[in-house]
C-alpha cells in the first residue's frame, strides 16, 4: 500500500510557464537515487493491477519517455506483454506517429509507425503506461491519432500510472470515450503550483566540464534490444539477463560495497534491472538516470504534504529536507553533444557503473558525466549496450 506522502515530492521546473512544478516520485529511480529493488517493487504493484483487469488478453504496453520507460518495461516483463516506448530520439529507417506533450520541457513525442501498424490488429488492448497523469491530455493526443489512423482504436485503449491527479471532469472525459483509467495512488495536485512557487531555489548548480577527459574502464556488451521498437518482454528480459552476465564477468562487485548504477535519459530499465542484480550480491545499490528535465534545486526546506491546505494563508508548516533535489549537475547528452541534460544529487560510492545504449561517438556527453561523477567518486565504469 503506497500513500501520496510516501512517494510525492514537488520540484520547481526551470522557466516553464505552462506548468511550474514537477511531480518527483522518490521511488521511481529517475531524479532521486533509489534502491533498484524498491523501484521495481512499486512498478510490480501497478503490474498486478493491469494483470488482474486484463487477464488472458494480449496486450501492447506503451511507456512514455523519459520517465515511464522503466515502469512500462518492468510491467511488460512482469505480465509477459509486448512493449514499446515513445521516444524523442531518432530511430533509423522508420516513420513516426508524432504527438505532443505540451507541458513538457521537450514537447515532441513519437512512436515508430511501422510497429504500431503491425501490432495494432494483433493485440486486444493498448495500455499506456505513465509515471503520473495530471490531465490525461497527452495520452488523448496519441489516442486521437491512433483512432484517426486505425479507426475505433480508443475502445482498445487503457491508461495505467503510478500516480493519478486527474480531476473529475478529466476522468469523465475518459469515461465518455470508454477508456479505463488505473493507478496506484490518487493525488491532489491542486496546490502543487503554489508549493513550487514557495521554494527558494538556492541549491548548488554545477556545470560539468565537457573537455577534460579521464581514463575509465569502458567496454561494450552485445545483445542490445531497443525498446523504441516493439519487443516481446520475455525476450527483452532474457537479453537484460545476458547484459548482466557479461557485466558480472568483467566487474567484481564486492559484497557490502556501495554501488551507483546510472542510466542515460530514456535508457532507464536496464540500469534498474542490473542494479537489482547487484543488490542480490549483498551490495548497497542506488540507481537513477540522467534527464532532460531542468529542475531548480533547493538547499533543503520544503512544504510538508500534509499541510498543503495551509499554503494560501501563509501558515504552512515546513520541514527540513522535503525538497526532492539539492544539487544539479548540468551535462551534455551522450546522445547529442548539443543537448543539455542533468543529473541530481550525486553521492560518494565505492563503484559507479554507467549504462547507456548511446551509439553516438561524441566526447562531450561522456566527459561531462564522468567529470560530474568524479567530484565525489573515483571508480567509474562505462558500459555500452550495443
Biggest sheet overview: 6 strands, mixed
Strand order of the largest sheet: 9-8-7-3-4-12
- Mean pLDDT across the residues is 93
Alpha carbon gap, first and last residue: 38 Å
Binned, the helix content reads 25-40%
Structural shape: globular
* Structural class by helix and strand composition: alpha/beta
Share of residues in strands: 25-35%
What features would you describe in this structure?
The protein has 386 residues and is an alpha/beta fold. The chain has helices at residues 4-7, 36-53, 69-79, 113-119, 137-150, 168-177, 192-197, 233-250, 269-279, 364-374, and strands at 8-13, 21-25, 59-63, 82-85, 96-100, 108-112, 125-133, 157-164, 181-186, 204-207, 217-221, 231-232, 258-264, 284-290, 295-296, 301-303, 318-320, 327-332, 340-344, 351-356, 380-385. A hairpin with a 7-residue loop joins strand 5 and strand 6. Helix 3 crosses helix 8 (233-250) and helix 8 (233-250) packs across helix 9. It is globular, with a radius of gyration of 20 Å.
Amino acid at each position: 500500500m503506497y500513500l501520496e506522502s510516501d512517494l510525492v515530492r514537488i520540484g520547481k521546473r526551470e522557466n516553464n510557464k505552462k506548468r511550474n512544478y514537477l511531480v518527483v516520485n522518490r521511488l521511481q529511480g529517475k531524479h532521486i537515487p533509489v534502491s533498484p529493488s524498491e523501484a521495481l517493487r512499486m512498478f510490480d504493484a501497478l503490474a498486478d493491477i493491469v494483470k488482474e483487469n486484463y487477464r488472458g488478453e494480449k496486450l501492447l504496453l506503451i511507456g512514455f519517455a523519459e520517465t515511464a520507460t522503466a515502469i512500462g518495461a518492468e510491467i511488460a516483463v512482469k505480465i509477459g506483454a509486448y512493449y514499446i516506448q515513445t521516444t524523442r530520439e531518432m530511430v533509423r529507417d522508420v516513420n513516426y506517429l508524432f504527438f505532443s506533450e505540451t507541458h513538457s520541457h521537450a514537447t515532441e513525442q513519437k512512436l515508430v509507425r511501422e510497429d504500431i501498424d503491425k501490432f495494432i490488429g494483433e493485440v486486444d488492448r493498448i495500455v499506456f503506461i505513465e509515471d503520473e497523469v495530471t490531465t490525461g491530455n497527452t495520452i488523448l493526443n496519441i489516442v486521437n491519432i491512433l483512432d484517426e489512423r486505425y479507426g475505433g482504436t480508443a475502445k482498445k485503449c487503457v491508461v495505467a500510472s503510478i500516480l493519478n491527479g486527474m480531476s473529475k471532469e478529466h476522468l469523465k472525459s475518459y469515461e465518455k470515450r470508454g477508456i479505463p483509467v488505473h493507478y496506484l495512488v490518487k493525488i491532489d495536485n491542486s496546490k502543487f503550483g503554489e508549493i513550487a512557487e514557495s521554494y527558494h531555489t538556492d541549491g548548488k548548480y554545477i556545470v560539468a566540464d565537457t573537455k577534460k577527459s579521464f581514463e575509465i574502464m569502458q567496454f561494450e556488451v552485445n545483445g542490445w534490444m531497443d525498446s523504441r521498437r516493439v519487443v516481446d518482454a520475455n525476450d527483452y528480459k532474457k537479453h537484460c539477463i545476458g547484459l548482466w552476465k557479461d557485466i558480472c564477468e568483467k566487474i567484481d562487485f564486492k559484497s557490502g560495497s556501495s554501488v551507483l548504477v546510472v542510466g542515460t535519459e530514456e535508457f532507464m530499465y536496464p540500469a534498474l534491472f542490473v542494479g537489482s542484480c547487484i543488490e542480490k550480491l549483498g551490495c548497497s545499490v542506488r540507481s537513477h538516470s540522467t534527464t532532460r528535465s531542468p529542475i531548480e534545486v533547493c538547499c533543503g526546506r520544503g512544504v510538508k504534504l500534509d499541510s498543503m491546505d495551509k499554503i494560501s494563508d501563509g501558515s504552512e508548516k515546513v520541514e527540513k529536507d522535503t525538497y526532492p533535489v539539492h544539487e544539479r549537475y548540468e551535462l551534455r547528452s551522450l546522445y547529442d553533444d548539443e543537448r543539455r541534460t542533468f543529473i541530481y544529487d550525486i553521492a560518494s560510492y565505492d563503484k559507479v557503473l554507467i549504462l547507456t545504449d548511446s551509439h553516438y561517438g561524441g566526447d562531450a556527453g561522456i566527459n561531462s558525466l564522468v567529470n560530474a561523477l568524479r567530484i565525489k567518486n573515483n571508480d567509474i565504469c562505462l558500459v555500452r549496450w550495443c
